[in-house]
Each structure stands twice: as C-alpha cells, then as structure tokens.
Write a structure and sequence with these properties.
The chain is of the alpha+beta class and 455 residues long. The protein has helices spanning 2-46, 56-72, 78-103, 110-122, 125-143, 146-166, 173-186, 191-229, 237-257, 293-302, 306-335, 338-341, 344-352, 359-382, 403-435, 445-454; strands at 261-274, 277-291, 386-387, 391-397, 400-401.
C-alpha cells in the first residue's frame, strides 16, 4: 500500500509539473498571438489602401512634391530655349506693330499731330524689328540668371503650397486622429519608421509562437509515452487519465482562443512615373482579418442574421461544448461513485458523444476553407499584376494558417487517442480478472464497479 501511495504521488507530482509547463507554453503562445494580432491590425490600418492609393491627401502630397522637385530643378533644353526665344520675338514684333499702328492713326488734336510727325521723323519701324533678336537674347539671359530663377521658383512654390493647403479630404479627420495615436503608441513620427519597427517585432513573434506550440505538442507526446511505460500499472490508470484530461482541457482552451487563420490581401508594390518622378506605393493592405474559433463564434452570434447565428450555435455546440463536456464527463465517470457511473448523461458524453463531436470535422473544414479561399484570392489578385516600362503593379496574398490551428489539430488527435485509452482501461480490469495473472493484483472494488457500469 505504501509503495502504491508513493508511485501515485510521484506520478501526480511529475505529470502536474509537465501539465504546468504545457499550460505556461499555452499561455505564452496565446499572449504572443494576441500581441501579434494587435500589431498587425495597427499595421493594416496604417498601410491601408485608403491611406495610400485611394487617399486624396496622399496624392496631393505626391503631386506637390513632384512639381516642387520639377521647379527646383527647372532648366530649359536648347530646343526649349529656341522655342521660348521665338515666342519672345513674336511678342516683341507684335508690340512694335501695334505701337506703329497706334502712332500712325489719324490725329485730330495739334498735340497728337505733332507727336505723329515726331514719330515718323525719328522712329524707324524696320530698325526696331531688326533689334528684336538682340532684345530677345537679353530677356532670355536675364530670365535664366540664378537669381531670377530663384525668384521665379519661390513664387511658383508659394502658389503650389497654397494649392496643396486648399486640397484635403475632410472625411479623414477621425482616421488621421487614430493614425496619430498609433504613431504615439509605437514612439514613431511617420509611416516609414512605424513599418520598420513593427516588421522587426513581427519577425520574432511568430517563430516564438510556433516554438511554444510545438513545446505543447512535445508535452503531449511525453504524456503518451508515460502511458506506454505504465501500461501494466493498472492501479495508476485513473490518476494518469485524470491528468491526461487536464492536459487535453489546457490544449483545447489554447486552441480555441488562439488565432487559427489570418487573411491578408495587399498590393505589394505599385510603381509608375508622374511628372518625371517615380511614384511608389508599397504593401498597400486591401483587407486584413484574423480570428480564433471563439472569435468566429462570437462574430456569428452577434451578426443578427438567423443563418449566421445558427452556424455560430452549431460550432459552439459541436466543436466547443461537446469536447469540453466529454472530457469532464470522462473524469466524473472515472472518479465518481456508482450512482454517477450509472448516470445516462455522464455515460453518454463519456463513451457515446464522440460521433457527435465535430472538432475533427472543424479541423478539416478550416483547412479546406483556407485552401479554397487562398486559391480564389490568388486568382482574383492575379488580375492586378501588370508590368510595363512606366507602370508596375504586384499584388500578394499573405493568408496563412496560424499556430492556433496546429494546437487545435493536436487536441483533436490527442482526444482520439484518449478515447482509445478510455476504452482500453475500462475493458482492462475485466480481461485481467478472467486471466488471473499472478503478476498483477486482483481487481479492486472500484475497478469492478467500473466494469459493471461499463456493461
């Protein structure tokens, strides 16, 4: 009896420590998933297409910057200079002809007649026209002096900036306020610095999530290995199975609340020429969403539509309520007295509810939905891809399964193994009592009660 107490105590302490490690890994995986989700939601907001390609303010800034750059680098090619010079000559010749016609017009007053006589005597229209090219060259030289160009650029940029201030999207004031709050949250001042900081953080978060998820799976494998090592220690079955149920509940809780699938659609790169300047948009998020099973259920139940609420209720019932109730009923069955063991509700959920649970179907459904949706998205985004000498557009789908899916798959497989173990240990006492093996102790009263109730 003392030896049995020592073995059982050692088993409970050892497996409890293993359970604590798995629970801590699950907590860390869930916490990192929540942190990653928050960062990616902020990233998708800052880089949303409404703040980029579809933003009036963004296009205003791009156009103003492009025109300002053209003003600062303003210069005329030889062909342009020749064209401007000809235009100046045409204007000067026109002014001379107009002045000549005005001076030669009939005059009624004595003063006008004297001025007309003086003009005809001292002014030669032909001589003025001959001097037009020289005047044009002087005007061009004066206009192209650095000081003159600088004054012209200042006037042009002032008008350009005034136009920019008068052009804005008033409907974006709330979003702009949220954008500023996000920048303050991450301690940055612009989108470029924000993207660098968040991308560095995301590069470390997901690998850590997978490490904790695989550590949980490793804990399950250790526990199953312990079952194999203790397969002949019948008196430790109940204690070990109760601890196995606790392990399953931890894995199920983490799998239900940790992100399972992430939908991320974006224009990866959009480049084109505007006013001689290369305009580039990077990682323009079209749509982003990430959900766990619990979040999907809550979303469907809050939708308000009867069909969505029905689907949410079915997922809640068959993929959450049934697995949890089955595990708890199994523990109650193994630990309960005779009346509990004979309870039809407990017996049904312990032994007969497996075919009603849809957790395994849920795993397959999520996988198929991911494959199908990803294929549809890739086909839809393919039409946005375009390449030419002046315009390039590259779209991408970053939709992916997340560590929560792996953890939920681990629970489903682990639950199937536990069901087989339960069938085995409830048959074991009867089989051993018939063989009466000298190496094993006779069945206890508790085990006999379990056999009679299992019948």
């Amino acid at each position: 009896m003392g030896r049995l107490f020592y073995q059982r105590g050692s088993l409970i302490v050892g497996v409890s420590l293993l359970l604590a490690v798995v629970a801590w890994c699950g907590y860390r995986a869930h916490s990192l998933s929540v942190e990653q989700k928050a960062i990616k939601q902020d990233y998708s907001f800052v880089n949303n297409i409404s703040f980029g390609v579809l933003s009036v303010d963004k296009w205003r800034d791009l156009i103003v910057d492009a025109v300002r750059q053209r003003i600062e680098n303003f210069d005329l090619t030889p062909a342009e200079r020749d064209s401007v010079r000809k235009e100046i000559e045409h204007m000067l010749n026109g002014l001379i002809d107009k002045a000549d016609s005005m001076m030669n017009a009939p005059q009624k007053s004595l003063k006008g007649k004297l001025r007309k006589l003086a003009y005809r005597t001292f002014v030669s229209t032909k001589s003025l026209h001959d001097q037009v090219p020289a005047f044009s060259n002087r005007i061009m030289a004066e206009a192209l002096r650095p000081g003159s160009k600088k004054r012209l650029a200042y006037v042009a940029k002032s008008k350009l900036e005034q136009m920019g201030e008068d052009t804005y999207d008033s409907s974006r004031e709330v979003e702009a306020s949220r954008l500023d709050s996000i920048y303050r949250k991450y301690g940055v001042s612009d989108a470029e610095a924000f993207n660098r900081k968040t991308l560095q953080a995301l590069q470390t978060l997901q690998p850590r999530q997978y490490r904790y998820a695989f550590a949980m799976i490793g804990g399950v494998l250790v526990l199953l290995g312990l079952w194999y090592l203790l397969r002949r220690s019948r008196r430790l079955y109940v204690s070990l199975y109760i601890l196995s149920i606790a392990m399953a509940l931890v894995i199920l809780l983490v799998g239900l609340t940790t992100t399972m699938i992430e939908i991320d659609l974006r224009i990866k790169s959009l480049n084109f020429q505007l006013l001689g300047e290369t305009i580039s948009f990077q990682n323009q998020v079209i749509y982003f969403q990430t959900k766990s099973i619990v979040e999907v259920v809550v979303l469907l139940l809050r939708n308000g539509k009867y069909d969505s609420m029905l689907v949410g209720a079915l997922i809640l019932c068959f993929s959450i309520f049934f697995p949890i109730t089955k595990l708890l009923s199994t523990g109650i069955y193994l630990l309960g007295n005779r009346s509990w063991s004979k309870n039809k509700f407990i017996y049904f959920f312990a032994f007969k509810s497996g075919k009603w649970s849809m957790a395994d179907v849920m795993v397959v459904a999520i996988l198929m939905a991911y494959i199908g949706f990803n294929g549809l998205v890739e086909d839809a985004l393919h039409s946005l891809n375009y390449r030419s000498n002046t315009f390039t557009s590259i779209s991408s789908s970053n939709t992916s399964l997340q560590p929560g899916y792996i953890i939920f798959v681990a629970f489903v497989l682990y639950g199937l193994v536990l069901s087989q173990i339960l069938q085995w240990i409830t048959r074991e006492p009867r089989a051993r009592s018939k063989s009466k093996s000298p190496d094993s102790p006779p069945p206890t009263a508790g085990s006999q009660r379990k056999v009679s109730s299992a019948r």
